[in-house]
Amino acid sequence: MMNQICLIALDLDGTLLDSEKHLSEENRRALEQCARLGIHIVPATGRAVDGIPGILRDLPGVRYAITTNGGAVMDLKTNTPLNRCVLTSEQALKVMDIARGYHVMYDPYVNGRGITQPDFFEHMEEFGLRPVLQEMVRATRDVVPDIYQYMEETKSSAEKVNIFLAAPSEKEVLREALSVVPGLAISSSMYNNLEINAQDATKGNALLWLADYLSVPVASTMAFGDGENDIPMLKAAGIGIAMGNASDEVKAAADDITLTNDQFGVAAFIRDRVL
Predict the structure, then answer these.
(1) By three-state DSSP, how is residue 40 classified?
(2) CATH of domain 89-198
(3) How does pLDDT run across 214-271, given as a tens digit for each residue?
(4) How much is the pTM?
(5) Which residues have C-beta within 8 Å of that of residue 54, sequence separation ≥ 6?
(6) E strand or H helix at 93, and its extent?
(7) Given phi > 0 = left and psi -120 to 50 = alpha, else beta, which region is 104?
(8) pLDDT at residue 96 is higher than 90
(9) Whose CA is closest to 203, among 4, 14, 42, 91?
(10) What is the architecture, at CATH level 2, of domain 7-85+201-273?
């Protein structure tokens, strides 16, 4: 028998949102019903906090968010971090230095915003970003003349460094090159990207921290995800649910599997097992 669910953590892209990055009416209604039962609804995303859509922030039950794969746990009401686990300035610079040896677009996330530069911003299609993703990137990035120089001069820590590859075939080669840098967590959420965090910055660790902060038993947490970066969260939650569109690796890490994100898999599972 399933424990009473008190907190539901939800990846956004490929999970709660459909392929056009929209929150369906079916998923919205299911989450509103959960909120009426007093269940915490927690976006758990690789996006920075500024990338969480307003329609989701405004839902009842949404107060906290896990952002940048666990780089920050945010209080959305006050827009302040409750817990941070970040790359040092030296780590972020080393990651970008290695990445510059490949045909990639990279952007560090600093204080809830992505940092980009004109030659990336103006040629996103070269790096496999679909128009809907390009639109999101344009809304959530600050443009500087040179990212590396900016990070070097400001000595900024980074919640995450996101990398998009023009040649996805180089993904594992780049992953191996980055693995020599101490203290990193390297994951992916798309076929053509790598996401670099501090070693302890995972959605799973962030979920455990937030559950403790809210005095919610881990056994009473549920998590939904579809990507490699969701695996620690699916394993940490009381019950982890993989989307029907998830990879075999993600499905193997989950306790159960639901329909795809375009089939409103979140709502289907919640209606069947929670409400």
Answers:
(1) strand
(2) 3.30.1240.10
(3) 999 999 999 999 999 999 999 999 999 999 999 999 999 999 999 999 999 999 999 9
(4) 0.94
(5) none
(6) helix 89-99
(7) beta
(8) yes
(9) 42
(10) 3-Layer(aba) Sandwich (3.40)
